[in-house]
């Protein structure tokens, strides 16, 4: 579960050291509240929900300390190996576009498309209705389509791989 938790922590925080802290806090809270885990349910959903809750609490406390407004989390992911294959360059571009999504859309995209959770599971983790998950995903797809470069769109239509 640690790699999955770390990926989600990175999606939420956009910073490696904060993702590490989130994973650690999630593990500690899960151990402290182990009796709350319902046998026969999915451990991954429970842990992701704990991490989401910790992240929201951290955002709230930062807003209180800083006054008001959203916490600036505009940090891009970096990739090692500048000379790596074009696929990795494309992956970096996709990640950059996904990172530019509003936080609610970004975390919904991650849980649904990267972690492969169902709409219902994503809704339960985020404590939102399934319809909101569907709405966020639709809005994210539209936003991603809008930010696609004309060259990328023409390559897609001609079937060329970039």
UniProtKB/TrEMBL annotation:
<keyword id="KW-0805">Transcription regulation</keyword>
<protein>
    <submittedName>
        <fullName>RNA polymerase sigma-70 factor, ECF subfamily</fullName>
    </submittedName>
</protein>
<dbReference type="InterPro" id="IPR013324">
    <property type="entry name" value="RNA_pol_sigma_r3/r4-like"/>
</dbReference>
<feature type="domain" description="RNA polymerase sigma-70 region 2">
    <location>
        <begin position="2"/>
        <end position="63"/>
    </location>
</feature>
<dbReference type="InterPro" id="IPR039425">
    <property type="entry name" value="RNA_pol_sigma-70-like"/>
</dbReference>
<dbReference type="InterPro" id="IPR013325">
    <property type="entry name" value="RNA_pol_sigma_r2"/>
</dbReference>
<dbReference type="InterPro" id="IPR036388">
    <property type="entry name" value="WH-like_DNA-bd_sf"/>
</dbReference>
<comment type="similarity">
    <text>Belongs to the sigma-70 factor family. ECF subfamily.</text>
</comment>
<dbReference type="GO" id="GO:0016987">
    <property type="term" value="F:sigma factor activity"/>
</dbReference>
<feature type="domain" description="RNA polymerase sigma factor 70 region 4 type 2">
    <location>
        <begin position="93"/>
        <end position="144"/>
    </location>
</feature>
<dbReference type="InterPro" id="IPR007627">
    <property type="entry name" value="RNA_pol_sigma70_r2"/>
</dbReference>
<dbReference type="Pfam" id="PF04542">
    <property type="entry name" value="Sigma70_r2"/>
</dbReference>
<dbReference type="InterPro" id="IPR014284">
    <property type="entry name" value="RNA_pol_sigma-70_dom"/>
</dbReference>
<dbReference type="InterPro" id="IPR013249">
    <property type="entry name" value="RNA_pol_sigma70_r4_t2"/>
</dbReference>
<dbReference type="GO" id="GO:0006352">
    <property type="term" value="P:DNA-templated transcription initiation"/>
</dbReference>
<dbReference type="GO" id="GO:0003677">
    <property type="term" value="F:DNA binding"/>
</dbReference>
<keyword id="KW-0731">Sigma factor</keyword>
<dbReference type="Pfam" id="PF08281">
    <property type="entry name" value="Sigma70_r4_2"/>
</dbReference>
<keyword id="KW-0804">Transcription</keyword>
């Amino acid at each position: 579960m640690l790699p999955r938790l770390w990926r989600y922590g990175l999606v939420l925080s956009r910073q490696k050291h904060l993702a590490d802290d989130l994973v650690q806090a999630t593990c500690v809270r899960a151990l402290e509240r182990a009796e709350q885990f319902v046998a026969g349910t999915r451990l991954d959903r429970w842990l992701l929900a704990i991490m989401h809750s910790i992240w929201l609490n951290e955002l709230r406390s930062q807003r209180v300390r800083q006054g008001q407004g959203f916490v600036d989390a505009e940090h891009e992911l970096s990739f090692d190996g500048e000379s790596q294959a074009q696929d990795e360059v494309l992956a970096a571009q996709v990640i950059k576009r996904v990172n530019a999504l509003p936080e609610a859309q970004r975390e919904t995209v991650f849980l649904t498309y990267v972690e492969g959770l169902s709409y219902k599971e994503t809704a339960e983790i985020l404590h939102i209705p399934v319809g909101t998950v569907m709405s966020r995903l639709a809005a994210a797809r539209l936003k991603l389509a809008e930010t696609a470069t004309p060259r990328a769109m023409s390559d897609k239509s001609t079937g060329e791989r970039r």
